[in-house]
Amino acid sequence: MTDDILLRTDSDGVAELTLNMPNRLNALSDAMLAALQAQIDQLATDQTTRAVILRGTGKAFCAGHDLKEMTAGRQAEDGGKAYFADLFNRCASVMTGLQRIPQPVIAEAHGIATAAGCQLVASCDMAIAAHGTKFGVNGVNIGLFCSTPMVALSRNIPRKHAFEMLTTGKFIDTEAAERLGLINRAVPAEDLSAATRELAQTVASKLGAAVKIGKEAFYEQIQMPVDQAYAYAGDVMVQNMLFRDTEEGIAAFLEKRPPEWEQ
Asked: Is the Transit peptide keyword given for this protein (predicted)?
């Protein structure tokens, strides 16, 4: 367990991180961003955790940035310029950090995921949502275009749909979120935790070294031209094939027995 605003439990190779500011709809306050960054930094070198679940308490997954803190930041002599620049840099570090740590991260969304909260879902490697969850990048409704959430959103769903969400501020439901690729699937609210846990445990049961090298390669190759991506991915496959545990996994498959992995 970390600070009260961010809870952590660990079992069977799965770390569960719970945003715990229900009275603020789990807003990404300065303290929440700091707590998330601390966990990301720890997970980056964690050799025992193989999957991560990210969820929120109360009525919402996450309602985005803390607007009260942002308003207070305007009181500085520069009108908040330095604070806002630092805030969005810290937020970007958390979002990219989720994709850089070796463990797959699964968002468990419910209620609403708005603005930077929607960005948080989009930044996770996978996402499962409760039926009825609403997703939006609705900053435009208060005169603030969701430019940083746009980065993650536009890398998850088709650009025209992303642009419509950004310019209209309209929310999408779980059916649209699944169809567009923002979430993997939606389940009844009462099944949400079990479904997310099942997915996390399935991931955690795989060879950690293979998933680690594969996750890094996934995000590297997707930014490359196809020929370059194949060359890079081929090198990664060579490295993976040379793992002792991969050799054991292939031998076990051929011999029709469970693998005896060291990692």
From this structure: yes
Nearest to 203 by CA among 52, 56, 59: 52
pTM above 0.90, yes or no: yes
DSSP state letter for 203: H
Give how far Cα 74 sits from Cα of 43, 143, 146, Å. 34, 16, 18
Residues 6+ apart with CB under 8 A from 144: none
Secondary structure (DSSP) of 209-245: HHHHHHHHHHHHHTTS-HHHHHHHHHHHHHHHHTSHH
Q: How is the chain split into domains, by residue range?
A: 6-204, 208-254
What's domain 208-254's superfamily in CATH? Lyase 2-enoyl-coa Hydratase, Chain  A, domain 2 (1.10.12.10)
pLDDT band at 262 (very low <50, low <70, confident <90, very high): confident
Rounded (10°) angle between helices 116-123 and 81-100: 20
Contacts 24+ apart (CB under 8 A), 259-262: 259/207, 261/207
pLDDT single digits (tens) 58-105? 999 999 999 999 999 999 999 999 999 999 999 999 999 999 999 999
Residue for token pair 């090198």: 235
